[in-house]
Amino acid sequence: MTTEPNSASAGSNEDPLTDFSNCHVGIIKNFERLRTLSLTEIESPVQDDVKASAKKLYAFFRDVVLEHHSEEEQELFAEVKDSARKGGDDAAKALGMIDQLVREHRSLEAQWKAIESDIKQLSKGKLASLDQEAAGKLADDYLAHANFEEQEFLPLSAKLLGERGLSSLGLSLHMRHTHVSIPNYI
């Protein structure tokens, strides 16, 4: 991950947990944008600001959020689970948090699917009947999810991972985002 708020690509920070935290900055910004959209009365023709906001949200969820979830689950959560094998109260707590966060990812993705086609229509300047209550709930739920990760999960992860686990996570993230072309040999 980079420190670019709307990106989920690997960066060069020495602490990979900081990369996840920095990604949350863009996530929070965009879900606040969704909250604003959920409170906006949409008119015909679709207002330019609504169209621009919907366009950003549609691309953001598709290009960043889904990749962020995948990266957390396949890299961060896997590394924390590995470190948790040592046992202890923190290990059990972290494993419970991981289960909760994965369930939240699936729930948030399902909530997005429910409004995605309307967001896409609005992004094209076409009138759509966006379920504003559902959009507001998604924004609130995602903001709560990101806050829980920031305040509870990432600090516990840092404690469990230690220097060795953080190095392993950093290497894993780097390899995930390194595109190496290997020629085929016959």
UniProtKB/TrEMBL annotation:
<feature type="coiled-coil region">
    <location>
        <begin position="91"/>
        <end position="118"/>
    </location>
</feature>
<keyword id="KW-0175">Coiled coil</keyword>
<dbReference type="Pfam" id="PF01814">
    <property type="entry name" value="Hemerythrin"/>
</dbReference>
<feature type="domain" description="Hemerythrin-like">
    <location>
        <begin position="17"/>
        <end position="156"/>
    </location>
</feature>
<dbReference type="InterPro" id="IPR012312">
    <property type="entry name" value="Hemerythrin-like"/>
</dbReference>
<protein>
    <submittedName>
        <fullName>Hemerythrin domain-containing protein</fullName>
    </submittedName>
</protein>
